[in-house]
Amino acid sequence: MKPTPPQKDLNRLVASIGTTLDRFITQRQQEFPYAKGELSQILRDVGLAAKIVHKAMMSSGLIGIEGPAGERNVQGEDQQKLDVVANVRFVRALTRGQEVCAIISEENEHLIDTGNPQAKYIVAMDPLDGSSNIDVNVPVGTIFSIYRRQSPVGQPPTPADVLQKGADQVASGYVLYGSSLILTYTTGYGVNSFTYDHTIGEFILSHPNLKTKEHGQIFSYNEGNYHDFGQGTRAYLQHCRDQRYTARYVGSLVADFHRNLLKGGIFFYPATAKSPQGKLRLLYECNALAFLAEQAGGQATNGHQRILEIVPTHIHQRSPLIIGSAGMVADALRFIDQPEG
Ligand code: AHG
Ligand code: MN
Ligand code: MN
């Protein structure tokens, strides 16, 4: 007769796998009352595209997906092959999910009409954030914002659908392709982060109800732009050094943001000589992360105004960005608001 395994072994064998993304969205459906499962579908579409992009990324060095695609995007930047691959994968997944009527993408000059006129939602996205890091195996990301359309259902989408201020987002999030594959999002009821379990092919809730610290010890900015910054910004950065804060800068906004979200910190990308309006794009980088930052107790500003209050006039417009722990952003603004000495 085989000995009965001790209960602890059985407990381990039948332990819960945790809460899957689908289960979590269903449990929280009441937070998205006007959606009869549409948000679930859009997040499932994002999760599917993320897995496919991650798959390509993991073997990029082997399948020749590294390097430039040979085209320049509307930003005037050399598109990397993985920018193009990620863009195709996310546009296709969101289009086939049929819950999105239009997409704004960093990689497309104009609004993409998905041919789903009955769909009620718009997505603004940066399909691959941190392109300069792709070929050197440094974490990169995807950033997305979800809005309700303004034009009548059944009609083609219009520019008014996509030029909405960040405060009107119904959801936003990011994918981080790092040592683990992470999907983080908010629908305005807190921030929740999911880690992909490759063994069962599911995103599992790993960081419920994320809150950032009121004050952190990490500051992130590209030191190479220091001489372009205003006197107040330079004075705040000197304050960070005087406080012996830790300098961390990955060069992928999603990676820098995610670290600061978990550990507390502040990220700066002010206006520079090369990018007098700032480098980062309002619709599909700043707004999405500003919504998450505020939902996690942090703040996001362009140095003069709350990011989420900026009314966009162009789908690819840029903005200076100061984002992270509320106490650190407040400190930075105090230095920036000092009259130029
Ligand atoms: P993208 O790859 O989508 O163009 O975004 C890159 C952005 C952002 O990820 C990062 O914070 C910033 O560019 C880095 O800019 P610098 O290389 O000028 O520091
Ligand atoms: Mn980007
Ligand atoms: Mn990008």
Plain-language structure description:
- This protein is of the alpha+beta class and 341 residues long.
- It has two domains: 18-207, Fructose-1,6-Bisphosphatase, subunit A, domain 1 (Fructose-1,6-Bisphosphatase, Chain A, domain 1); 218-336, 3-Layer(aba) Sandwich (D-Maltodextrin-Binding Protein, domain 2).
- It is built from ten helices and 15 strands.
- It has helices spanning 7-13, 21-27, 38-58, 60-63, 81-97, 159-162, 231-242, 253-263, 282-295, 326-336, and strands spanning 68-72, 78-80, 100-105, 112-113, 121-129, 140-148, 171-177, 181-186, 191-197, 202-207, 218-220, 246-247, 266-269, 299-301, 321-324.
- Strand 1 (68-72) and strand 2 (78-80) form a beta hairpin.
- Helix 3 packs antiparallel against helix 5 (81-97).
- The relative contact order is 0.13.
- One manganese (II) ion is lined by residues 83, 106, 126, 128-129, 131.
Q: And the CATH topology of the largest domain?
A: Fructose-1,6-Bisphosphatase, Chain A, domain 1
CATH-defined superfamily of the largest domain:
Fructose-1,6-Bisphosphatase, subunit A, domain 1
Largest sheet: 8 strands, mixed
Which H/E pattern describes the elements?
HHHHEEHEEEEHEEEEEHEHEHEEH
Distance between the termini: 87 Å
